[in-house]
Amino acid sequence: MEKGKVAIKMVIDGQERDISYEELALSNNLAQEALVRLLIEKKLFEPKELIDMMERVKKERYRQLDSDSAEG
Hints:
alpha+beta, flat, two-stranded antiparallel ribbon
């Protein structure tokens, strides 16, 4: 693995292993998808509720710059 590309180092079965940012992102994505599927299967929420919440979070976190600050 190229130096600088390591996100974390883990010890697995007594051996140190470098984990790349790509591997870490894929692992997080897998865990998130599994969690969402489980919560839907358990009927804790409906898929539409998840989509609505994602839109809400998107609006809260990724607000558009107002026209005044965009001009300057």
